[in-house]
Structure formats: C-alpha cells, structure tokens
Amino acid sequence: MNGPEGAAPRAAFIDDAVVSELRALPPSCGPVRLIAVDGHAGSGKSTFATRLAAALDGAPVLRLDDIATHEELFDWTERLDAQVIVPLSRGATARYAPYDWTLRHFTAPRSLPPAPHVIVEGVGAGRRALRPYLARLFWMERDAAGSWERGRRRDGPAQAAFWDGWTAAETRHFAADPSRPFADALVHEGREGYVVRVGRPMNAGPNQPITHRDQMPPPH
Question: Which burial class, exposed, middle or buried, applies to 14 when counting CB atoms under 10 A from its CB (0-12, 13-18, 19+)?
Fold first, then answer.
C-alpha cells in the first residue's frame, strides 16, 4: 500500500517548531517517543513519515504495511504488541518479520532500535490499543474518497480488486475505532511542505495525549 518515496526527503518540508516540540516530549513507550502518522490509504502518510524521520535525525520508521497481511488487514494488534511495543517499552531492540504482499508470507526479521523517536505510520496507527503508548498522533487531513482515488491511480488497475476490498475494510475499521478525533495535530499537504494544525490535549496523562472531537475542524 505504500507508494514510492520520490526524491530524498528534506527536513525543511516540516516546520521547525513542530520538530522542536517533538524533541521536547517525554518518552511514551519505555525510553522511546513513539509518534504515529495515521490517515486514509493514499493520504500521504508514508512520505510525511519519511520526511518527519529525516527531520528527527533519521528516526526509525515502522510501516504498518509490514505488519498487516492479506488475511489480517487490521487484526494485527497482538502481533505488533508482542514484536514491537513490548520490547521497546523495556528499552530493548524490537524484531518484527515484514510481510511480503507479493509472495504472501512473512520474510526475514528486521530490527527496530529503541531510538529517542520511533515513527509508526499506516492506517490504524492511532488505533485505541496503541494510543496509550504514543507521544504524538498525527492525522493526514485528506478525505477518504480523495485519498483512495490517489491510491488507486498510484497502484494502477491491476490492484483494483484489492482496493475494493481494502476500502470496505478501512471503512469498517474507522467506524469502530476512529483515530482522527484523538489526533494531536492535523497535517495538510501543500506544494511547498506541510501545514500542521495542532490541537490541545486535555484530560490526558503524559503517555496518553488526546484531542477532543470538538476541538478539531470537521473533515473536508
């Protein structure tokens, strides 16, 4: 589901104030500041996460496409917890087996170190089960229809059947477990970079930033 990353990322695409705020956060998962980038498939999560990682001195990025499978588009929480969250929360290096979407099986394990910042990006990165471990949750502010159209164009007609099944599964997921109402910031993609609209977390502990629904503007 991830598109090509394009040219080398530039930290200038993201405002310095956003990066400084992330650097000042307390750890949220053991020694790690776990930062989630969520949004609809095709909304630009992968590119934003890559550029954010570059701005954070090359922070490791976990792509949820490596955790999900054809049979478990969203039922991967236990695997992510066991392979990633538990080790990082102990200050240990996580090891997870990426899924190969062409061969339809898991491949050789990769390491994910307990760096000062670790970014997890993908549809469902801000789900209920992960929010207690997040230092920040970004939501890509592109509506579902526009995101899916963009993704279909990117992947071409050969993936049309997959996209039909995906959009139905994504709709069910966000209906049952929405991320946007809990986002700390909405990310608008522009020609020259990103505009990040920050909400005000309320009634949250240090490891549970929450932005209430009525504090965010409605989706476009």
Answer: buried
